[in-house]
Amino acid sequence: MNLKNIVNRYLINALEKLNLTVKSFDLFGSKNPKFGDLSTNVALILAKQVGRNPMEIARKIEQAIPIDNSILSEINVTPPGFINFRISPIFYQSVVQQIINKDKHFYTGNIGKGKTANVEFVSANPTGPLSVGHGRQAVIGDTIANILQWHGYDVTREYYYNDGGKQMRILGESVAARYSQELGQSVEWSDDYYQGDYIKDIAKDIVRANSGL
């Protein structure tokens, strides 16, 4: 059930009643929610075509649209000639009920059919501890991948380990230096080494794990 298509059909039917024709018009989300949920500039376009007041045309179109309480709760006109539509709570309730009834089969699209998508997410830096932010990234990334799958894409989920190169060498050297310090040895500490307390914790764990050797 496409809401914009429904409202668009209301507008086309109203124009036919009034014997008005227009090649195209816009139907968009209202910039100011106090006026409604959707707005159209159709009256402004028609006003230029026929040389009449856009507010007058907008009101005629408004009067030609029947309010179906299951879809719309209000139609109003605002200067310089926008027609605004407020969606009925009944409509939203019906959509929620459809989602509950159809569960995961509520909506599936095919705009991605035959296409592939790669979603890389989390990819936490292996040289540091995980954070709450990484958990949030996991939820958002997996949700994006699910949405793409619903639209027919062949989705690959990627976690980039990034566990090679200079940063891993420095991590190892940092832990080795802290390990030596835990053993009471003198260490020349490099500014390149990682400074976090977690490095000390890793070194202490290694010392404890090897204390019986």
Automatic annotation (TrEMBL):
Name a Pfam family for this protein.
tRNA-synt_1d
The Arginyl tRNA synthetase N-terminal domain extends over 1-87
**Known InterPro entries for this protein?**
Arg-tRNA-ligase, Arg-tRNA-synth_N, Arg-tRNA-synth_N_sf, ArgRS_core, Rossmann-like_a/b/a_fold
Q: Which GO terms describe its cellular component?
A: cytoplasm
Q: Which GO terms describe its molecular function?
A: arginine-tRNA ligase activity; ATP binding
What is one GO biological process annotated to this record?
arginyl-tRNA aminoacylation
> Which SMART domains does the record cross-reference, listed alphabetically?
Arg_tRNA_synt_N
Gene3D superfamilies per the UniProt record, alphabetical: Arginyl tRNA synthetase N-terminal domain (3.30.1360.70), HUPs (3.40.50.620)
Q: What is this protein called?
A: Arginyl tRNA synthetase N-terminal domain-containing protein
Q: What is the species of this protein?
A: marine sediment metagenome
